[in-house]
Amino acid sequence: MRQHVNPLSRFFQIEKELPAPNELFENIDLPIHLDIGCARGKFLMEMASSNRNWNYLGFEIRESLVLSAEKERIDLGINNLRYLFCNANVSLAGWLSSLKRNQVKVVSIQFPDPWFKLRHKKRRVINDSLIDLLARNLDEGSKIFIQTDVVDVMKEMSNIIDSSKYFDQATNQLSLEFNPFQIATEREKYAIINKLEIYRKMYFRNAIKVIN
């Protein structure tokens, strides 16, 4: 699902005021799994249906996909799941500030747009600012899971996270053999069917404090 929109365009640089957890979920005390770039949201739909002890939230920059995913979610009556239209690099900070400390336990970024052209790499979702923001708002033990079928993207994402010093890898291997959530995204299914290499890493927030 790589129908690109330019996240650096003026329209997507306007911060959206996103609803707080008490406006999103029936039980606001459950831990939150945030999926950045959720596309059609099929992964989260399966996750939320199989585990009612968590709340799931998908951020997606393509509004048509959010509208479609929300309609399906409502039709299925899944109340521990929501999808929001926004540019996470612009609107996530304000949303995180509305949370109780340590509500977000897992952040996943799966098969992000690779933006292959050199001049477009600045559009990639993972950058120093995003990882610094997550480090400031995730407590020790919280997880970041990343996966992609583009080795250059994995190397860049890993380098950014590793250089932050606030997250430790769960493994020293380039790739986890399996998706730890045991539910595949649509792109992941495509990659498996087409025998593409998939690169995965899990990181844990360590105890190092963020320097202001």
Describe the model.
The protein is globular. Strand 2, helix 3 (63-76) and strand 3 form a beta-alpha-beta unit. It has a seven-stranded mixed β-sheet, with helices on both faces. It has seven helices and seven strands, in the order H-E-H-E-H-E-H-E-H-E-H-E-H-E. The chain is of the alpha/beta class and 212 residues long.
Q: What is the element layout, followed by pairings?
A:
Elements: H1 21-24, E1 32-36, H2 42-50, E2 55-60, H3 63-76, E3 81-85, H4 88-96, E4 104-110, H5 128-137, E5 143-148, H6 151-164, E6 167-169, H7 186-193, E7 199-205
Parallel strand pairs: 1-2, 1-4, 2-3, 4-5
Antiparallel strand pairs: 5-7, 6-7
**H/E topology pattern:** HEHEHEHEHEHEHE
Neighbour order of strands in the largest sheet: 3-2-1-4-5-7-6
Low-confidence stretches: none
Calculate Rg over CA atoms.
16 Å
What structural class should be given to the helix and strand makeup?
A: alpha/beta
Percent in helix: 25-40%
Please summarize the sheet with the most strands. Answer: 7 strands, mixed
Oligomer description: single chain
Shape: globular
Q: TL;DR of this structure?
A:
32% of the residues lie in helices and 18% in strands. The chain has helices spanning 21-24, 42-50, 63-76, 88-96, 128-137, 151-164, 186-193; strands spanning 32-36, 55-60, 81-85, 104-110, 143-148, 167-169, 199-205. The longest helix is centred in the N-terminal third of the chain and has 14 residues, at 63-76.
